[in-house]
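seq as requested:
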Amino acid sequence: ISRCGKLISIRASNGRDVLAKVVGECNSRRGCDITNGFQPPCGNNVIAASPAVFRLLRLQGGGNTTVTVSWK
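C-alpha cells:
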C-alpha cells in the first residue's frame, strides 16, 4: 500500500510534531528504482525529510544526519 501523497505525523525526541506529505517511497527490501537513483535498500522505519521538516522540528542536521523520530 503506497503512502505517496498522504500526510504523516513526525515526532522528534524533543516532543515537537510536524505533518509532512510523503512524496516518494523506496522498497526497504529491494532498494529503489531509477527515479530514486537505484539507492540501496533502506532500513525499516526510516524516513528522509526536507530541510524544512528539520527546521520545524528544531533538529540540527539534514542531509545524511540520523535523528530519532517516530511517525504515523
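Residues 4 and 24 are 6 Å apart (CA to CA).
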